[in-house]
């Protein structure tokens, strides 16, 4: 894909606070995320396991959806949860949550936390950004690494293959310029939709009775380490094509997440403590080098070295 990413990172930051017409694309159709994370990157089971093995279990976060009814108006950004029919649901915290049978359905993605970023030339502003985004260069700190998710590597190919609007086009509409330089849909891999996504990208929590309070905390953006570990464990223990979970493998992953102390997870907590309100000026905020590189984050090369 030919895209102009310099000074953008529109797919990695929640830029709604600086837009005069913020997109609501993730809340179209019957299945609405319970969280308010913008452009969550859905990871496959193998990718989740890779992050956990690499010590980055604390940089992962789950997403559930409210159960929906009727024909879908979804725009293709849900990675395969949409089936265009009434949802089964499981009640948690008084909310009907979308489910696979009697098990709550969920994704696992990359955490976002407030960072001082300046996309589109707006000046340093507190915006929620991917745990792995360098807030100065707006480049990914794991780009090209074995952990780099397929969803990111092939973006916006999946959207084009599904004939859905890309984040590049949303940025063009809001701020002008040319971001999507190649509008022909490429051959893409990992486009898991429908039943083939079950156990590989869409997971099913086997114990909804253990999730009291999770819906409220997910909506408030206040999931605990134990909350995140529970979902990540289920994802790692899942079997492709099935809602069954290997409990021994899930338990090992839960423990690894709770023990994780990565630079990404630690920096997310520090940024949250340092941040002003989302959308506020961040000109006096510390640098990514002071908060992330000091914790062990790899530096990014800068755009002058990118062809």
Automatic annotation (TrEMBL):
<feature type="region of interest" description="Disordered">
    <location>
        <begin position="279"/>
        <end position="307"/>
    </location>
</feature>
<dbReference type="Pfam" id="PF24375">
    <property type="entry name" value="DUF7531"/>
</dbReference>
<dbReference type="InterPro" id="IPR055953">
    <property type="entry name" value="DUF7531"/>
</dbReference>
<feature type="compositionally biased region" description="Acidic residues">
    <location>
        <begin position="70"/>
        <end position="79"/>
    </location>
</feature>
<feature type="region of interest" description="Disordered">
    <location>
        <begin position="68"/>
        <end position="89"/>
    </location>
</feature>
<protein>
    <submittedName>
        <fullName>Uncharacterized protein</fullName>
    </submittedName>
</protein>
